[in-house]
Every structure is written in structure tokens, then in C-alpha cells.
Amino acid sequence: MMTKKSRNTIVYLLFVVAAFAASVRYYYMEDYQSMDTVEAHVNGDMIIFSEDSGFYDETITVSLNKNIEIPSAASIYYTLNGDDPTVERLKYTGAIHLEKNSDFVVYPLKAVVYYDGEYSEIYEKTYVLCDDIHNEFDVEVVSITSDRNNLYDYKTGILTKGKTYYDNLAKYGNISYIEGNYSNRGEEWVRNAHMAIFDRDGRVSLEQNIGLGVSGGSSSAFDVKSLKVYAGYAYDKKYDDFYMDINSEEIQNFQYSFVNKYNSFRLRSGSQDIDFGNIRSSVASRLAQLSGADCATATKRCIVCLNGKFYGIFDMQQNYSNSYLANRFDLADSECIEKYKGSETKTYSEAGISEYFQRDLNDIKNRKLLEKYVDMDNFLLYYAINILCNNTDWPGNNFEIWRYTGDFEQNNLYSDNRYRFLIYDTDLMFNTESTPPFFCRMSGRYVCSFDGKQVSGLWLHVF
Q1: What is the pTM of this model?
Q2: Separation of alpha carbons 152 and 214, rounded Å
Q3: Residues 92-118: pLDDT tens digits?
Q4: How many helices (H) and strands (E) would you count in the chain?
Q5: How far apart are CA 221 and CA 233, in angstroms?
């Protein structure tokens, strides 16, 4: 039987072993040689925020605490304006006081650990403060942050005129529209950013690092620009996609799969309609859905804040990526989706189907041949929507088709390799120009489907 003395001896020895292990761990913690070594030895986040992202109806105080496994010589630096924290920014020395206001205010709190000349990854929380905050919004709030150099640097900023603009000005002179940095596209013009989305009650529905780019054509020169948001491990090591519902009503209206996983989506500012109600795009999408069109993206209204400042009222909109189309129409391989866009004539030419539209379509053989390559029910509804809504920025622009080139699946109509049509950029629908709607932008310069004899009497009734 163990005596009291034996038990005390064992307890003492365990205490000595624990103390020795702790001292050894502390020694190695303090002897970390690089930030990579520190991060490799730390379990969990390196910075712990005392408050989570969310809505608050009172002034709050946020503390930043280092993970206990981080060397004592490491420091925390932070910002509240969206810039990346560096040693030139604010050094954390005590709790951060975030003041409530009568109008809503957004505090994007970004923090890093600095040790031995190196920085950790950036950690971020977003706080939205206001009196009666839970009754402040009837739409979702999207907060996006990115370092000012990503947005406004002369050479690399994506939201500014920048070097591209002044190079083009010198080359072409003061023409009506001059492309700037904001006009550039491609991976090299996507910037690292962070996004938090809050529902109307202040719950965080999505929070992760993202890629941020500009969307749109000539409207990208406007002060408030449409944005494109990308998911991927290149931006956030935890998430490769966005898991979110852009329009939960979509599943009630259509038979195809409800999509709640995206690798990208758009935040549309209203573009050409931004100063004239800013509702045409969302109204057009909704009307197209109600018409039974399978080619209209769902939209959801939201408020966008950029680096803590109100940026505008936007439409959160699904993006016609290959991944989205495959998920939406239950197609097996997103790599087998083929798309073309531009003007109608350019699009048909690149797809190799112009000749089928240009034949005499009163001949049933020619119609059958066209129907072999194009879903004509989809075609007719697509044209009817754009014409009846008087879309004056179409079909000479904003014209896009797609098809699936993989194996045909017996129970999936969308796998039949035929072309179908995509409605997008509808901010110039419902135009009140005096031009008769049916002929608006229907000149031969842009269009091959409606140049007189090509309109078959068998299809005309659809309009």
C-alpha cells in the first residue's frame, strides 16, 4: 500500500518533470530563429482577439493577446484603416477602444506578430457599431479590406487611373474613354484582400481572405466600381471556395440544382444605372427568373464598405464561371464547358455557328440544322427578354453563349452539346430612348440573327 510519503514524493517528481519540460519549451520558444519556425511550433492562431466580428450597439474594447507559445520578444502591430500592419503602423500596447456612433461605423482591425525582422500572416476581425444596430440594415453588409497600395498605387493599384491611364493619354490623346489601371484584367490584376459578410442580424455568414479585382467595361472608370471577388487557397489557406446563398428563392423557381458553392462572384455597383435608381440589373434578373429563363443569375442587394468606409449599395451577383455552370446544371466536368462572348456576330463567328443563322430559316432542313447546334427555345426566350426590356447595351455588347462538350447524360438536357445563352450586364435595360425596342441596336454591323429574312414566321410569335 502506498504511503503518504511515497505519494508526496511522486507528486514532487511529477512537478519537477513538468517544470523541466516547461523550461525546456520556454528555452526553445525564446530561441526560435525565424517566423516560419515560430508558426510551425504554434498551435492555433498566433493572435487571439477578445471580441469576434459582428454588430455591436455600444462602444467596445478589444484586446489582442499573443498565443502563449510565441516568444516574449515578439510584438503585435495593428491598423484600423484596412492597411496591412507593419512596424511603421500602430504597436499594440493595450486594449483598443472602438467608439460607437449614431451612424454606423465599421472598424476593420488587422493585426500581425512581428519577430526577428519578420511578420506573421495577417489576422483580422471586423466590427460594425451603431445605436440600435440590429435594426439598422435590411440588407446584408459586406466589408472588404485591402492595403492602400493594392488599390491606389500609381503602377499597381486596381481602383485608380494610374500609369495605364496616363500612358494611354499620351498615346491617344484626350479621347472620350481612356483605359486606366482599373481596365486591366487577369491574375496579375487581382489583389489580396479580406472579406466579411454579415446578415441583417449581424451574424457573420462568411469571413475569409480573398482575391479582389475590378469588373465591368467602361463603367470601371466610374468612382464607384463593380468588383469581382475570388476564392482559393492562393488567398486563404483554409478555404478554396465560398459557401453562401446568393438567392435562396432560386431553388423554388427552377428545376436545376441550387448553387451554394462558388469560386467567384461579382459585386455590381449599378454601372450605367448607378445614378438613375440603381435597380435595373436586379429587376431584370428577377423578371428573367420569373419568365422561366435558366440563363439569369440570382442577385442579392447589399451594402459594401471598403477599408471601413461606405462604398455603395451593390448587387451581389453570381458569376458565370465554369464551376458555377457545372454546379448549376449538374454537369460532371467543369473543364468541358466552352464559352464565347462579345458582340453577337463576334460570338457566333468564334463559336463557328454563324452560317447556320444566315441560311434561309423558312426551310425546315436549315431550321433542323440550326437546332442541332443551338437550343432554340433558350435562344428565343433570351432574345425576347432582351428585346422586350429594351436592352440598349445588347446585342452589340454583353452577348455570351456556352455549351457542355463532355459526354451526354441521358437524363440531363444541358449535356447535349448545344449552345445556350447567358443574360448579364442588364443595367441599360428598360431604356426610354425613342428607338423602337425591337430594332434597338439591331443593325447588321452587330447582328446576324435579325436582319430581315432570317426571322422565321414560325418563331416570330414568341416576341
Answers
A1: 0.82
A2: 13
A3: 999 999 999 889 999 999 999 999 899
A4: 12, 22
A5: 30
Q: Are 360 and 453 in contact (CB under 8 A)?
A: yes
Sole residue written with cell 428565343: 380
pLDDT (tens digit per residue) in 436-449: 444 444 444 444 55
- Give domain 32-133's CATH superfamily: Immunoglobulins (2.60.40.10)
- Asked if residues 303 and 267 have their Cβ atoms less than 8 Å apart, the reply is no
> What distance in Å separates the CA atoms of residue 224 and residue 104, rounded to the nearest whole number?
20
Start-to-end C-alpha separation, the chain = 97
| Distance between CA atoms of residues 191 and 210, nearest Å | 8
Cβ(181)–Cβ(162) below 8 Å = yes
- pLDDT tens digits for range 349-393: 999 999 999 999 899 999 999 999 999 999 999 999 988 888 888
pLDDT, averaged across the chain: 85
Residue ranges, CATH 2.60.40.10, the chain: 32-133
d(Cα 235, Cα 247) in Å, to the nearest integer?
25
Q: What are the beta bridge partners of residue 119?
A: 114
Q: How far is CA 163 from the centre of its chain?
A: 25
CB-based contacts of 273, cutoff 8 Å, min separation 6: 279, 280, 281, 427, 428
CB environment 201-237: b (16+ within 10 A), e (fewer): ebeeebbbbbbbbbbbbebbbbebbbbbbbbbeebbe
What pLDDT, on the 0 to 100 scale, is given for residue 40? 67
* In the predicted structure, residue 454 carries a pLDDT above the cut 80: no
416 Cα distance to chain centroid: 30
DSSP character at residue 410: T
Place of cell 468588383: 227
Sheet order of strands, 420-422 included: 337-342, 399-404, 420-422
pLDDT, tens digit, 9 for 90 and up, residues 296-348:
777 888 999 999 999 999 989 888 899 989 988 999 999 999 999 999 999 99
